[in-house]
Amino acid sequence: MADTSCGLHLFWDEAETGYDFGPGHPMDPTRLALTMRLVEALGLTDRPSVTMRSAPPAGESTLRLVHTAEYVDAVKRAAADPSATDLAHGLGTDDNWAFPGLHTASALIAGQSVAAAEAVWRGETPHAVNFAGGLHHAMPGQASGFCVYNDPALAIARLLELGAERVAYVDVDVHHGDGVQQAFWNDPRVLTVSLHESPSTLFPQTGWATETGGPDAGGSAANLALPAGTGDAGWLRAFHALVPELLAAFRPQVIVSQHGADTHVEDPLAHLAVTVDAQRIVAEAVHRLAHEHAGGRWIATGGGGYAVVDVVPRAWTHLVATAAGHPVDPATETPESWRAETYRLTRRPAPLRMTDGATPRWSDFQDGGYDPADRLDQAILATRRAVLPHHGLIP
């Protein structure tokens, strides 16, 4: 059922597909184009609650809210000479190939997320989505993990600049949101919460339960490291065992979220076993939590996701639909026009429905009992013990 109380600014610029490391790189911008085409084909852009927006690239003063001036200059040099390697700044590496549009495309994606934050904070819209964003690995002075400019961190920094006193960041990408955590490690105004595959089996090898914030910001970071192979029931159990309770205690004025689709069972770069159906449920949960604890103020980004045809477009279309207040029935068939466009672009058949056919169910961690022999429950308890006491909560 549609939620008419929701409004959405959807930030999109076709030039965001220029964030293209080249043939063979996992970060294929086709996933962005296919997402936007599916959003359009399902009529979401025609909804009165949805306003399409495009913002200019983030300028240098904005980029320097998180990134060093030296690093911004290094990105520009790499764009001017893509054949050069700059290991000190993580450019020209196996993950972060240089290309001529490196600075321009990265700044454009960052600009959308910053503008989304501004629009929500100023009351122009309760919700904003930039699914091309979510580049959460970029560090202040270094590219990392396919990420050049850290747009979620820049959005948060802009919110703080505008006067926000409590911002919650919720990251459900399969990889740890290390760059955002690092940017606000010792800032008690920002709570970073990351659910991700265990660092023992996946890049970037950070995000342990013991990482809880700097000396002046104890409890400002929460990390739940999931065992490889975790599926829908475990993923949803973990999310609901940590995120709602923390947000209720922190009382954020605004939520920024990152919805990497690489938790999916078909993703080629990780080892969780989540479905599009569970990803939709988490998007709905974040939406609900924004209304419960942040006055409805919610900025959502995309992130990772390397099953370009089968997963990413459906996962992020559900995200857009949820934020618009017009959720898409999972049983909905994907439009024939979108299937044709998918085949034209990729020469691969598109999924036929907006569901993987799953009906995810999970047991509540506190009401459903703790199993001391279960690795997932061990991980949940470790994080709760590390973080909740900082917020006056009982693990």
From TrEMBL:
Task: Please name the InterPro entries in this protein's record.
Answer: AcuC, HDACs, His_deacetylse_dom, His_deacetylse_dom_sf, Ureohydrolase_dom_sf
Q: What pathway does the UniProt record associate with this protein? A: Ketone degradation; acetoin degradation
What positions does the domain Histone deacetylase occupy?
Answer: 25-322
GO terms of molecular function = histone deacetylase activity
By its UniProt entry, which SUPFAM superfamilies does this protein fall under? Arginase/deacetylase (SSF52768)
Q: Name one GO biological process term.
A: epigenetic regulation of gene expression
Q: Which keywords does UniProt give here?
A: Acetoin catabolism
Q: Hey, which family's this protein in? A: Belongs to the histone deacetylase family.
* Protein name from the UniProt record: Acetoin utilization protein AcuC
Organism from which the protein derives = Kitasatospora setae (strain ATCC 33774 / DSM 43861 / JCM 3304 / KCC A-0304 / NBRC 14216 / KM-6054) (Streptomyces setae)
